[in-house]
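Shift notes (night). Ran Alpha/beta hydrolase while the centrifuge was going.
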Amino acid sequence: MQHFTASDGVRISYRDEGQGRPIVALHGLMAHSGFFEPQRSLVSDFRLIRLDLRGHGGSRGDAAPTIARLAADVAELADLLDLDDAIGMGWSLGASVLWRVLAGPARRRFAGAVIIDMTPRVRNDGDWTLGLSPEHCEARSRAIAEDFTAFAAAAGAAIFAQGAGLERHPLADWASAEFARNDGEAIGALWRSLAEEDFRPLLAAIRQPTLIAHGVESHLYGADTADHLAGAIPEARAVAFEHSGHSPHLEEPELFNRTLRAFAASLPPVRQSAITA
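Came back to this:
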């Protein structure tokens, strides 16, 4: 693992491997950079940068992190590494962080974006129904506060497809154990921050071509959420992963990686600085 010190003094861990167009991989809530291990095969052609987002993995030291602070960490690392023509890849929580990055000055460092199974507004309200109900959000907050270990164990298994007749995913126990290693206070703070955010006003201003990856068996967000994103972001298209739940990059990694390679090939060629950095 490599590390850098964020502007507020917190130590942030990341992995930086390979050469070529950078891919900046941002994981979901309670996960860490290891949840993108199946994407390591991409380092034959890409520079894969995987962060432990603040409050996760090796990036501890903040008991009350927010989405805005996580986005600032990503932007600071992109500046530190002097990235050009990168692809930002955000899964769940990581997608929310990526939207904040693409709304700020660091957007100039990104040529494309990949969003993995996420909604621009987690808490439903008024006529917005493509997230989770207020009752669901409140129940999650209580579960995190009252018995984080049990919540993490259940959430780790739930990121995989769970349709009728499907066997338990071989990574489910590992994911549950890794989720439970987190600090419940920090995760609770991030969940509250996420539930308060509304990224819908930002979507129309995203100019990077964007791939929306949706797991057909996701228990969180449906195809209508992916379709909304594809319509709201000017240069976006959605692709469905038929045998995946909330984590297609883990459940169908070979197909996901082929899809990512094809998406990268559709982008304008990288500048020389992005290759030689």
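The chain has one domain: 2-122+129-269. The chain has eleven helices and eight strands.
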